[in-house]
Amino acid sequence: MRIIVCVKPVPDPRHWNRMSLHPTLKVLVREGIPNVVNPLDRHALEEALRIRERYGGEVMILSMAPLFSLSILREALAMGADRAVLLSDKAFAGSDTLATSHILSEAVKRIGPFDLILCGNQTIDGWTGHVGPQLSEFLGIEGISFVKMIEGFHFEEDGTAKAIVRKKTEGGYVRIEARLPLLLSVVKEINTPRYVTFSGILEAERKEIQVMSASDLRIDPSQVGLAGSPTKMADLFMPEVKRRREVVQEKPEMASKLIFEKIRQRGLI
Amino acid sequence: MKGEVWVYAESTERVLHEVSLEILSKGREIADSLGGSLSAVLVGRDLMDVAKELVSFGTDQVYWLEPPDSNFYPGVHVVEALTELVKEHDPDILLLGATSVGAELAPKLAARLKTGLSAHCNDLKIDEQGHLLQVVPAFGGGVLATIVCPEKRPQMATISPGVMKIRRNESRNGKILRREMPLNGKSRVKVLDSVKEERMEVSLEKAEIVIAGGWGVGNKENWQMLEDLAKLLGGAVGATRPPVDEGWAREYQMIGQSGKTVRPTLYMGFGISGMMHHMVGIQDSEFIIAVNTDPEAEIFKMCDFGVVGDLKEILPCLIQEIKKGRSEREGF
Q1: What does the alpha-carbon distance between residue B121 and residue B293 come to, in Å, rounded to a whole number?
Q2: Chain B CB within 8 Å of residue A236 CB
Q3: Tell me, what's the pLDDT at B104?
Q4: In the Cβ-directed half-sphere of B71, how many Cα atoms lie within 13 Å?
Q5: Where are the domains of chain A?
Q6: Are B94 and B214 in a shared domain?
Q7: What is the predicted pLDDT for the residue at A129?
Q8: A159 DSSP 8-state letter
């Protein structure tokens, strides 16, 4: 099975409290904050590796990011992916989800046939969950989001295959049967990603990372980046906190009395 | 057309989702401020009662697409049918709930229409030029961004459940426009079955009191005290991610960016540090009480009343205090 896993480098959430808003430029100051593989993308990669272990085939990483993200792709390769493609070009900067999905789809068309594309359901920074479904739409295949389990695959005699998956819903899940090729966006519950091993790191050094630019993909620059993005950011601001912030340090008995009093004042006891 | 606001109305077993009513309420406000009209889009079999309910809720038009089979997946066929409908009527704004269905359908539809889409909006406003200002959380809600889509139409957004208030506006005579939705050719996706999982007794989103716990609760035994407190107060128990991972709480109890949004009269957080991706789900609570051993915990900057202390000691005292207070008042 040929599987493509989409990976995005994101600022490490453990350091987000160090991020600040530039007072006049209205941009995020994220200097010195390291990037990591988007957490849900690790689950997508883990699932791809498990499918490869069971059915054979190839796992390829696909990422659109600045060139300095090569080390993040090495980390994904160290988990066990076979090779990686990095889409990198100044023209891509500022792409919204629509432009990003368009770029990824052009790359997928050039990478060649595939059976499955796996994505994390959303990235931890922008939290849109758009790129998976939009990529499936640009490729003309079905895409399923919120996938919490891949039950298995059925291979037909005519060479086609179907996947049975569980999609998380508000009250439970739906079981879905879908023909390959297919795009699945996965949630955390799907698996526990493996740790990177030392030998994995050594092997990753020898694996191929292909870098492709806008011209390699024959992409019209007006279709990508800020120019090709229908959405614009008009403002960026910190949420306002209007709270009383009365904080006390008391013995448990006294603390309980004070809390009780607050509940009573609100008419809830 | 300017001022035409569309809302994708979701229903399960012929019951409208709460989030659809929330968005329709906001949609009405926006349509009125633009001098336009409000339409709902409905997809499914045998939904006449739901369509009527949408009309009585205050919708000017209901576009109802009825497929031949009730067991369809909202995939490519639905995207195609909706694309056609949108191109025919050219709405200004199209809103969907950020649900398991809406959050998947909206981006596909936006890609087909080559228009902009924002996700998990907390707020919607109209600026002087009549553009839709879409306020979305980023970086776990620590930052908010206002997104606009100045040129392409419709301006599309998904709205987080629980953030808009429901307001009925019944003084209208809306039209129901039904149309068959053909499921052309063989579908590549089939729904096999829907499985319902366990639900809690008091729904989190509707609870007047929410008792939430975080990593600091420490173990299942301590967690039980939160359950006891919630039972005593008639509230619901919520959690941050770690208690769910540890198995003290269930997935559906999770509050925050990857869970539910609550707006209770009283929220009490125990052993919760105050990471933005949790706080974003409780920020509209009327009153926030926090208990944490760490005086530097972020939650103390975002609460109304904070107690620096050990929840293991405070919870039993508080439970006693409430029992005592209640029996005194009730004269037992």
Answers
A1: 34
A2: yes
A3: 98
A4: 10
A5: 2-223
A6: no
A7: 97
A8: S
